[in-house]
Amino acid sequence: MRRHRAFVLRIPALLATGIVAAVFCSAACAQTSLPHASAADRAEALAIFKQLIEINTTDTPQGDVSAGTAAMQKRFLDAGFAAEDIHLLGPDPRKQNLVVRYRAAGTPTEKPVLFLCHMDVVQALRSDWSTDPFQFIEKDGYYYGRGTQDMKESDAALVATFLRLHREGYKPKRDLILALTADEEGGKFNGAKWLVEQHRDLVDAAYVINPDAGGIELDHGHPVVAAVEATEKVYSDFQVTATNRGGHSSLPRPDNAIYELTTALNKLAMYTFPFELNEVTRSYFKNLAADEGGQTARDMRAILETPPDMAAVARLSEEPAFNANFRTTCVATRLYAGHANNALPQTAQAIVNCRIFPGHSPEEIRRQLTTIFDDPKLSVKYISNEGEVLDTAPERKPISPPPPIPAVFGPLTHITDELWPGTPVTPVMENGASDSIYFAQAGISCYGYSAIALERDDVRAHGQDERLPVDSYWKSLDFFYAFTEALGSE
Question: Which residue in 142, 140, 144 sits closest to 129, CA to CA?
C-alpha cells in the first residue's frame, strides 16, 4: 500500500514531462485518432439522454428510479442482449437497479470491468428554474435539465456505448458490466451498497470506473486539468435541535428555540475548519500551479511549503472549489421550527451537511460541532444513510488511493490527450462523495472519471438551471466508446 501511495504522487510529475504515455502505453496507444460517433450513433445517444432526463428519478413521491432503469432494460433487450445478462433488481419496487453484463468472447482470463453509474437525481422545483427541470431542453449551446451534470449524461453515454459496441459486433476479452443504481443522492435503498452486500457476484470486478467523479476542469474554455478521483471526502448529515418551553408570541423572549438554533448556526458560519493537505491534494495543486499564472500560481506553490503560507491559503480559500480541497466543510441545508404562527417555537431543528476531510471520522466531527455550538441546550445527532437519527456517528474510513494501473491510465491518458490535447491527468480528492466507497471498502479499486468538461464556475449539479455544454456531451460519448473498447481489450 505504501508503494502504491508513492506511485500516485509520481503521476503528475510524469504527466508534466510528457512521458506518461510511454509509462502507461497499451493497445489503445496505437490509435492515432478516435473513432467518432456517426450521425445515427449520436441520434441514439441523444434520445437516451433526453429519455433519462425526462424520467423523474428523485427520492420523492413523484420520483421513480425503476422507471428509468426499466426503460434502459428495454433498450438492451430490444438490442439483442441476452435476458440472462440483464438484471433488474432491488429491495424496493421504486428503487430497482439495472446490471447489464456484456459477455467476453470465449472464456475470459481476467475479471470484469465495472462501470458504476447512479440513476437518481436531486429534487428540483419548477418554481426555482427558468426551464422545467424534467424537460430536456437545448438552448444557447447547452442541454438543460436535472441530471445533465449529475450524472445522467454519463448514464446515457455508457448505455449508448454498450449498445453501439454490441451492434458493431465487438468481442471483448473480458466481461464488461454496467450498473445503473438508486439512491446515491440519498434515500434508504442505496443500490451500490445493496448490490455489493447482496449480489456481489453480479458486480464483482477487477476494478470500477465511476463517472460520478473527476472530469475536465475548464478555465474560460481552456482545459486546465483532467481530474481522476483517487480519494474522497466522507459524507455525513447531522441533526441539530434546540428545544424550549415556548409560550405566547405576544410575550417574546430571547431564549426561544429559533434564537438558540440560529445563534449556533451563525457560529458555524463563522467557523473555518483547519487547513489540511494530503498526498492527493498536494499533487493536485502542484500540477495545477504549472498551468496557472500570477498570484494564483504563487499562492499554490506557497501552500505547499513547510510551513504553508497561511495568507496564500486565505486567498485561495475565497474560491469555493479550492476551499473544499483544504478542509472539512459543514453547512446548514434545511431548517424546521415552530408549531403555530402565534406561539413561540418549542422546537427548532437544522440539518447540517458535512464533507469530512480524509483522516477524520463522522463522530469526531459531531463532537467538534458540539464544541463549536457551545450550548448544552442543543443536541447534535448523526443521521445515517437509512435516515436513522443516532446519538453517535460511525468511525467510517476514507477511500485510500488505488494503484494507478497501466490498464486504466494508459488508455485514459491517451484518449484524453486526443480530445483535450496537452491537458495533464492528475489524481484528485473528490470534494463531494460517491458510491465508490462501497466498492473500495469491499477491496475493489475505484477510479472516478467522467470525461465531462465544465467551467470551474459553472458547476450546477444539485443547483438551479443545471446544464451541460453540448460539445461536452459529444466528447464524453467519444471518450467512453474508445475507453470501454480499450478496457475490454486488455
Answer: 144
The pLDDT value recorded for residue 222 is 93
Residue of 400 and 26 predicted with greater confidence: 400
Q: What is the pLDDT of residue 283?
A: 86
Q: What is the mean pLDDT of residues 349-355?
A: 97
* Domain 2-232+398-488 annotated CATH 3.40.630.10: yes
The three state secondary structure string of 316-336 is HHCCHHHHHHHCCEEEEEEEE
- List, in sequence order, the alpha helices (H) in 17-115: 20-24, 39-53, 65-78
The pLDDT value recorded for residue 469 is: 98
Beta-strand relationship, 222-232 and 425-430: parallel
Asked if pLDDT for residue 16 goes beyond 70, the answer is: no
Across the range 160-189, mean pLDDT stands at 97
Going through 307-435 in order, the beta strands assigned E by DSSP cover: 329-337, 343-344, 347-356, 378-383, 389-390, 425-430
> Where, residue-wise, is CATH 3.40.630.10 in the chain?
2-232+398-488
Question: In this predicted structure, what is the pLDDT of residue 398?
Answer: 62
For CATH 3.30.70.360, the residue range(s) in the chain are 234-273+328-390
Cα distance between residue 357 and residue 232, in whole Å: 8
Compute the distance between CA of residue 43 and CA of residue 40 in angstroms, rounded to an integer: 5
Which architecture does CATH list for 234-273+328-390?
2-Layer Sandwich (3.30)
Q: What is the pLDDT of residue 267?
A: 98
Report residue 223: phi and psi, to 5°: -70, 120
Q: How confident is the model at residue 291 (pLDDT cuts 50, 70, 90)?
A: confident
- CB-based burial, 406-433: b 16+ in 10 Å, e otherwise: ebbbbbbbbbbbbbbeebbbbbbbbbeb
454, 149 Cβ separation under 8 angstroms: yes
State the maximum Cα–Cα separation within the chain, in Å, rounded to a whole number: 80
The span from the CA of 392 to the CA of 364, in Å, is 10
Residue 258: alpha-carbon gap to chain centroid: 34
For residue 399, name the pLDDT band (cuts at 50, 70, 90).
low
DSSP string, 170-184: ---SS-EEEEEES-S
